């Protein structure tokens, strides 16, 4: 028994060491730097909690947090609604066509965020301007030069990228719902909507837990799409929290302050994610 325990720890040690070196040690180092005046090369002064106090006076960072929160809410709702609808569509009995649709819907997730940003930048700037010229509708003009439409441009891009990925999760859970339950409801005269809402939807609660967590955490971490599509413009009005932290660290060279922002941002994401997991897990039903 003792030999087995020793072997267990021998095999586990490299993984624990890697986690410590890659995650734990940088985090501890980052907490220390957040308490200092650090420019990326040397620590000039230990300032304690001054960096954290300055965050509450930083209007641009507070705005970027609110902008990121609004973006995350809109994106999470859109991604999960569309992802579920796509999953319901491709789980219909359509033969080999299902595989083609699944591949097509999942493909945007394979494209890098920078490339996606430039693709949609072309659509919003060139394609929309062409539509505006043909139809005469001002709605399609200047999508990325306006704060409101720039916001929805980011949401559309992110939904297009993530919906296919979330679709796969819903597909796996839909396929695990016993056919007997659906058949029994059909025999009892339940309509298509009633079968979905009364049987499938409650049994998809574990899928909602996973999908909401993934879409929420990814929405908060968006950076490359934001940089490629709007670069935070106009006048930083579409700047997300990650871009604000990056600019503070590498443009202003105030890495101690940027690290304090990053830790506050991490705490916000952690708290929201824990609350989301707690609430959604309460709704899960075991088959």
Automatic annotation (TrEMBL):
**According to Swiss-Prot or TrEMBL, what is its membrane topology?**
Multi-pass membrane protein
Which segments of the protein form a coiled coil according to its record? none
Record keyword Cytoplasm present: no
| SUPFAM superfamilies according to UniProt | MetI-like
The main location is membrane
What are the residue boundaries of the ABC transmembrane type-1 domain, all occurrences included?
65-276
* Record-annotated membrane-spanning stretches: 61-91, 103-123, 151-173, 201-220, 262-279
Q: Keyword ATP-binding: yes or no?
A: no
State its location(s). Answer: Cell membrane
What the entry lists under CDD domains is as follows:
TM_PBP2
Q: Which UniProt keywords apply?
A: Cell membrane, Membrane, Transmembrane, Transmembrane helix, Transport
Q: Which PANTHER family match?
A: BLL4140 PROTEIN (PTHR43227)
Q: Which family does it belong to?
A: Belongs to the binding-protein-dependent transport system permease family.
Name the record gives this protein? Raffinose/stachyose/melibiose transport system permease protein
* Organism this protein belongs to: Metabacillus malikii
């Amino acid at each position: 028994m003792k030999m087995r325990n020793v072997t267990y720890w021998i095999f586990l040690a490299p993984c624990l060491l890697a986690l410590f070196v890659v995650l734990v040690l940088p985090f501890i180092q980052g907490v220390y730097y957040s308490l200092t005046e650090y420019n990326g090369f040397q620590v000039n002064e230990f300032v304690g909690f001054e960096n954290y106090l300055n965050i509450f006076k930083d209007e641009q960072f507070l705005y970027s947090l609110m902008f990121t929160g609004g973006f995350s809410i809109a994106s999470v709702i859109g991604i999960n609604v569309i992802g579920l609808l796509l999953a319901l569509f491709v789980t219909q009995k359509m033969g080999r066509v299902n595989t083609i649709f699944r591949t097509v819907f999942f493909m945007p997730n394979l494209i890098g965020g920078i490339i996606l940003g430039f693709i949609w930048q072309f659509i919003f700037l060139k394609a929309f301007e062409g539509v505006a010229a043909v139809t005469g509708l001002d709605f399609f003009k200047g999508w990325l030069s306006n704060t409101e439409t720039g916001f929805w441009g980011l949401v559309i891009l992110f939904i297009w990228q993530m919906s296919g990925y979330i679709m796969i999760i819903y597909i796996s859970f839909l396929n695990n719902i016993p056919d007997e339950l659906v058949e029994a409801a059909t025999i009892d005269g339940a309509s298509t909507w009633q079968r979905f809402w009364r049987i499938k939807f409650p049994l998809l609660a574990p899928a909602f837990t996973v999908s909401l967590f993934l879409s929420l955490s990814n929405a908060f971490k968006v950076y490359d799409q934001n940089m490629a599509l709007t670069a935070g413009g106009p006048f930083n009005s579409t700047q997300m929290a990650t871009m604000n932290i990056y600019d503070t660290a590498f443009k202003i060279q105030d890495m101690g302050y940027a690290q304090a922002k990053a830790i506050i941002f991490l705490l916000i994401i952690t708290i929201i994610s824990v609350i989301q997991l707690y609430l959604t897990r309460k709704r899960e039903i075991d088959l």
